[in-house]
Each structure stands twice: as structure tokens, then as C-alpha cells.
Design goal:
Blueprint lengths: L1 H7 L3 H21 L3 H9 L5 H26 L2 H24 L2 H20 L10 H18 L2 H11 L4 H25 L5 H24 L8 H21 L2
Length: 253
């Protein structure tokens, strides 16, 4: 156990808490197709700053994407997804540069505020007609990349776009799975170039990928025709609560 704690640069209590968070976030990811990074960022940000969570989240997202890729590839709107990935390629370095340039406290606040605001927007079913245009499509991709670089929650931005297109739950879920898988290759390059993908981040990612995959497997079993209409409200309400709690704790830390 000691060598694991040394490799991850965590205390025993922090390590156990992150295992629990990884399983819970994996369940939500397996059920909804997104929100893994958002959930971890909203809670684990109290333990680690966003800039240190980003490399770990890459491994968690990749492990989840591998498990869900078949359904994502078969059911996704590929034309839309490819355009979002192109936009994210542009936005990722911008967001990551902003994260490195500002203080840890400020990046925590931004990360949690982004999660809360995006979740509220989705829950309120606010539709923005501009997003249904081609500039809106690529612009959403760029914004997704920027938000991923700052807060690791680019999937939420993509979810806003899909909501504006009024896609069925299965298409939204599959498109998000494919988007997160394809964008992972781009984000790895950016994280490496910026020096964010360090050894502790890799170690944390590899160790916590196992409980994450277990959670994803459980979550996939919950995505049935009967429960599909309820998956998005459940995830968004949970994210809003976690983001607000994290903001309060950050401000009074």
C-alpha cells in the first residue's frame, strides 16, 4: 500500500476517497455517456487542484470510452461528432494555457462554476437556435476544448449542443461516448506538450482506472429503455449539487 501512496502522492484517506469517487463517477458515465470528469472534478478538486486532476481524468475517460466504444461507434451522429472534435482540437490548448496561467484557487472556482452553470442550462432545457448552425457546431467544439483544458468538463458543452439539436437519448449518449474517445488522443498530445501529463498523474490514472471501469460496467446495466428518459435529469441534478457544495467548500477553505 505504501508504494501505491508514494506513486500517487496521496494519503491513505485521499486514496480511498478517490476510489469511491471513481466508482460513482463510472456508474454515472456508464449510464449517461458523459459526466465522469465533471463528477470527479466537482468532488476531487477539494483534494487535488484541477491542473493535477486533468492527467488522471484522461486515463479514467479513456478506460470508460474503451468499454463503451462499440455502442458509441454504432449509434453516434458521426458527422456532428467529427466536427466537434475538430473544434475541440483548437480549444484545448487555449483552455490549458489559461489553467496554467491562473492561481490554483481561481482554477478551482472556475472549474466548479463551469460545471454548475452548464448543468443548470441543460436542466432548464434552454435551447439556443444558433447552436444548430455550422458556426454553432464548430464553435461548440472550440468551447468544449477550452472548457476541457480549464475544467475537464468538455463533455458537458457537447451535451448542450446535442440538446439544442434535440437528439434522442441514445444518439446523445453514443455521440458523447465517441466524442470523448476521439478527443482523448488530442488531449493527450496537448497535456504532454504542456508538461501536465506527469508521472504522478499517470500513476493515479492507472490505479483509479480499475474502479472506474467497474463503475462503468454497473452503469451500463442501468441504461434501459425504461430508465433512459430519466438519465439526464438525474445526472444534472447530482452535478449541480456537487458543484455548489464544492464552491462553498473552496471559498471557505
Amino acid at each position: 500500500m505504501d508504494w501505491i501512496l508514494q506513486a500517487t502522492a496521496l494519503t491513505q484517506s485521499e486514496f480511498l476517497i478517490l476510489i469511491g469517487l471513481a466508482i460513482l463517477a463510472g456508474i454515472v458515465r456508464g449510464f449517461s455517456g458523459f459526466a465522469l470528469s465533471a463528477m470527479v472534478m466537482a468532488t476531487a478538486v477539494i483534494i487535488l487542484p484541477p491542473i493535477e486532476l486533468l492527467p488522471m481524468l484522461w486515463w479514467l475517460e479513456m478506460s470508460a470510452s474503451i468499454l463503451m466504444l462499440k455502442n458509441g461507434w454504432d449509434g453516434a451522429d458521426k458527422t456532428m461528432t467529427y466536427a466537434l472534435v475538430i473544434g475541440a482540437t483548437i480549444g484545448w490548448p487555449i483552455g490549458l494555457a489559461l489553467t496554467i496561467a491562473i492561481s490554483v484557487a481561481a482554477s478551482k472556482t472556475i472549474a466548479l462554476a463551469v460545471i454548475g452553470l452548464l448543468a443548470i442550462t441543460l436542466l432548464a432545457k434552454i435551447r439556443m437556435p444558433f447552436l444548430a448552425t455550422k458556426p454553432g457546431l464548430y464553435g461548440s467544439g472550440v468551447l468544449s476544448g477550452m472548457v476541457s483544458g480549464v475544467a475537464g468538463v468538455g463533455g458537458m458543452v457537447v451535451a448542450v449542443y446535442v440538446l439544442a439539436a434535440d437528439a434522442p437519448a441514445k444518439v446523445m449518449r453514443a455521440s458523447l461516448v465517441l466524442y470523448l474517445f476521439l478527443s482523448a488522443g488530442i488531449s493527450m498530445v496537448v497535456l504532454t506538450v504542456f508538461g501536465v501529463m506527469d508521472m504522478s498523474g499517470i500513476a493515479r490514472g492507472l490505479f483509479f482506472a480499475i474502479p472506474t471501469m467497474f463503475g462503468v460496467f454497473l452503469g451500463q446495466q442501468l441504461f434501459t429503455e425504461r430508465l433512459a428518459p430519466y438519465y439526464r435529469p438525474f445526472c444534472l441534478i447530482l452535478l449541480i449539487g456537487l458543484a455548489m457544495l464544492g464552491l462553498i467548500r473552496t471559498q471557505f477553505a
